[in-house]
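for the writeup, i need someone to sanity check this before i put it in the appendix. the sequnce is what the collaborator sent (i think, or maybe the updated version? ugh). structure was predicted straight from it, no edits. if anything looks off just tell me and ill rerun, i have time this weekend
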Amino acid sequence: MTQSFIRNTWLLIPLGLMLAFVSTSCDDNSFATIRYDDIGPFDTTGVERVVAPNGLIIYIHEPGHGDVIAESQSVSLRYTGRTVDGDIFDSSFRNDVDVSTVLNLRNMIPGFMQGLAGFNMEVDGQIVRMHAAREGSVRTLVIPPSLAYGSGSTHQLSDQTLVFDIDLISIASD
C-alpha cells in the first residue's frame, strides 16, 4: 500500500509543478479578447473617398486584390458599426479577432450592400456598376438614414447615419 501511495504521489508532483508554471507564466492579458471599446475607428485621413449620387460615402483604405463582389453573394468579413457619435452598435470583433462573419449582401441594409457590391451610376448613357469591392478590400462606409433604417421607423437606429469599418476577407462559398 505504501508503494502504491508513493507511485501515485510521484506522478502528481510533476503535474502540479507544470500547472503552477503555466498559471504564473500567463499574465492577465494572455487570453484577452477584443472588447468593443478596444476597436478604434479606421483613420480616413488622406484615404480615397467616393461619394455616390444617393449620399453613400465610401473610403477605400485598401482596394483589395481578389475577385469583385456581386450583390447576390455572401462575404466573409470583419466589421464594426457605429453611429456618427462613435457609439458602437455592432461588431464582429467582439469575440475574437481571428473569426470572421459570413453575411449575405442581399440581407443587409441597402447602403451596406452598395458599399461592397458597388452602386449603379449612369456613364455615357449606360448604367454601370461602380466601385465594387474586391476580396481583401478594407473600407469605411458612411451610410445615410435613407440607405440604412430610414426615418421615422421604430428601429432603434432610425434617423441615424451609420459608419461601418469593414475588412473584407473573401467571397464566401455558399
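The beta strands are 48-51, 57-62, 74-83, 88-91, 101-104, 119-123, 126-130, 138-143, 162-171. The first helix runs from residue 2 to 25.
thx in advance!!
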